[in-house]
């Protein structure tokens, strides 16, 4: 029996040593939420980022122990994939026209307008390589709630 527990500890230690992706998110009401992306349901929280990161280690240990004891599969960390930064999207001609008109009105290229809109939609702030987030007049080009609503209208959502 002791050998079985020792064996399980070895396996838990193995999984804990792997470079799993930790996602740390501030909570609107305060505190921090953290999860292990590759382990469904493995999550925790803390008052500070440091506390949340410490708590996820304990949650991860428990998650792995349960998975091992029930014979469930334990996903290993995903390798970072390489992306070209380019993809093709087909849209109706009417939407294409509306997008071009909106970008023109905002004084930016269609590519920059879509890049900024997509970044804002996924909660980030990215800019096209070398293009920044400034329009031709030198003004910042933010996508706020109003811009997102406009984008949804253009897309028919």
Q: What is the structural class?
A: mainly alpha
Shape: elongated
Tell how many strands the DSSP assignment holds: 3
Give the biggest beta sheet.
Answer: 3 strands, antiparallel
Radius of gyration: 22 Å
Summarize the structure.
The protein has 157 residues and is mainly alpha-helical. The chain has helices at 2-16, 49-70, 93-106, 110-121, 145-155, and strands spanning 22-26, 32-36, 43-46.
What keyword list fits this structure?
3-stranded antiparallel sheet; 157 residues; mainly alpha; 5 helices; 2 domains; Double Stranded RNA Binding Domain; 3 strands
Q: What does it look like?
A:
This protein folds into 2 domains: 6-70, Double Stranded RNA Binding Domain (2-Layer Sandwich); 93-155, no CATH class. It contains 5 helices and 3 strands, in the order αβββαααα. Residues 126-143 have low confidence and may be disordered. Helix content is 47%, strand content 9%. The radius of gyration is 22 Å and the shape is elongated. It is mainly alpha-helical and 157 residues long.
């Amino acid at each position: 029996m002791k050998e079985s527990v020792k064996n399980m500890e070895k396996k838990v230690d193995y999984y804990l040593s792997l470079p799993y992706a930790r996602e740390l998110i501030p909570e609107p009401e305060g505190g921090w939420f953290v999860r292990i992306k590759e382990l469904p349901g493995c999550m925790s929280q803390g008052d500070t980022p440091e506390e949340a990161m410490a708590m996820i280690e304990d949650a991860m240990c428990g998650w792995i122990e349960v998975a091992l004891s029930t014979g469930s599969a334990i996903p290993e960390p995903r390798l970072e994939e390489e992306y070209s930064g380019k993809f093709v999207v087909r849209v109706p001609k009417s939407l294409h026209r509306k997008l071009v008109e909106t970008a023109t009105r905002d004084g930016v290229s269609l590519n920059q307008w879509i890049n900024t809109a997509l970044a804002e939609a996924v909660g980030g702030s990215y800019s096209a390589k070398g293009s920044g987030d400034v329009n031709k007049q030198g003004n910042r080009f933010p996508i706020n709630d109003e811009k997102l609503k406009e984008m949804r209208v253009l897309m028919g959502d």
